[in-house]
Amino acid sequence: MARMSAEERRESVVRAAMSEFARGGYHGTSTESIAKRVGVSQPYLFRLFPGKQAIFLAAARRCCERTIEVFRAASEGLEAESAHLAMGDAYRALIADDPDVLLMQMQMYVAVAATEASGDRELGDALRAGWMEMYDTAHLALGADVGETTEFLAYGMLINVLVSMGFPPDHRVWAGFTPAPAPAPDGPA
User: Fold this and answer.
1) DSSP codes, 78-110
2) Are 89 and 74 in contact (CB under 8 A)?
């Protein structure tokens, strides 16, 4: 069996980190748990990434990239309402198929608030930059209409909250959504 290259191992770390951070958050996830999931030592983990914050940022970037890719693919060749509906459907499918994407997003928001409350703005600045790429992707797909973008992202955040909290698809809080929402991910955020 061929050995993994450093880049392949790095990719394994990002996938594992996204899963670990999605469930445990920035402060509640140890680098030891990430290393264990990948099957490497912590010293090796730190040869790939300079520290826990760099690992978290790589996982957060992956989360944002996945969402951006979904928005772009869904809206390609579409305009306005058609793009809005296609991106919404594709996003709901993404978080249903890969709950770590949703949970990681939620953990990103918590990490910004927690680190900035303790005086660290660096992590927040980096995470806001990733979120702005998602915003800009949706904004362009929606014809650079600020109102449409705001509405789309507001509904998206509502979906994030309702799915994270485990509201079943037939609950009355989903009455204003068409089609039905994605099922709630397994386990607590």
Assistant:
1) --HHHHHHHHHHHHHHHHHH-HHHHHHHHHHHH
2) yes
With 0-12 / 13-18 / 19 or more C-beta atoms within 10 angstroms meaning exposed / middle / buried, residue 138 is buried
Closest CA to 17 of 42, 6, 95: 42
Q: What is the CA radius of gyration of the chain?
A: 18
Backbone torsion region of residue 184, taken as left when φ is above 0, otherwise alpha when ψ lies between -120 and 50, otherwise beta = beta
CA 17 to chain centre: 12
| Tokens 């030891």, residue located | 32
Q: Vertex 27, ends 25 and 28: CA angle to 5°?
A: 65
pLDDT band at 185 (very low <50, low <70, confident <90, very high): low
User: What per-residue string of b and e applies to 95-119 under the rule 16 or more CB within 10 Å gives b?
Assistant: bbebbbbbbbbbbbeebbebbeeee
Using an 8 Å Cβ cutoff, are 45 and 58 in contact?
A: no
pTM for the predicted model, two decimal places:
0.89
pLDDT band, very low/low/confident/very high, at 69 (cuts 50, 70, 90): very high
Measured distance CA(55)–CA(71) in Å, rounded: 25
Rounded Cα gap, residues 127 and 156, in angstroms = 18
